Amino acid sequence: NCPAEDGPDFDFGAPPIIVTLADGRDLLLAGQKSGEVFGIDPVSGRIVWRQRAGMGGFNGGIHWGMASDGRSLWVGIADTPGNRFAEGPPRQGMHAFDAATGRPLWSRIEKPTCAQASYACMTALSAPVTAIPGVVFAGAHNGRLLAYPAGGEAPLWMVETNRSFTTVNGVT
After folding, report:
1. Roughly how many angstroms between the first and final C-alpha of the chain, as a whole number?
2. Interval 91-130: pLDDT, tens
3. Which end of the chain, N or C, is surrounded by fewer C-beta atoms within 10 Å?
4. Nearest alpha carbon to residue 121 among 72, 172, 81, 85
């Protein structure tokens, strides 16, 4: 499904989120594979704020979903290497923004887990982000499921899913 001209791959793979802000206004939050995230007035279409979260491009930026509680917006960034359209360094990891203003709140860059240039080592957060009160969950290319505190810092816990599991009927 990739074009022959090796385009920049800047579509919106993640569904937008509509939130009601503390002042009662609605805002549409949208994340793009370019690595940019937007706050948009849903009535006029005016861009209220715009921030860069990642370098973007082919297999980069915001892939399949963000999460918000109406106050914060949590954005997982993939930013895998090999992109001639990238802006800035890779920022694989979780990034939080003020939903009303776009002001960055915190970022957690996840370093590769090994030296190989393979998915088994990439900490790209490509899967949709899920939030519950106090915790934000994200899945990485390397198979790790991470639970971040909603206020930032290091993950609360991590589960390694890129391994064999024994099922209830004893099959690995």
Report:
1. 33
2. 999 999 999 999 999 999 998 888 777 777 888 899 999 9
3. N
4. 81
Give DSSP secondary structure letters for 1-43: ---TT--------SPPEEEE-TTS-EEEEEE-TTSEEEEE-TT
R_g over Cα of the chain? 17
Residues written for the chain: 172
Would strands 72-77 and 26-31 be described as parallel, antiparallel, or unpaired?
unpaired
Q: Which residues of 93-128 are buried (b: 16+ CB within 10 A; e: fewer)?
A: bbbbbbbbebeebbbbebebbeeeeeeeebbbbbbb
Reported pTM: 0.90
Contact 120, 56 (CB under 8 A): no
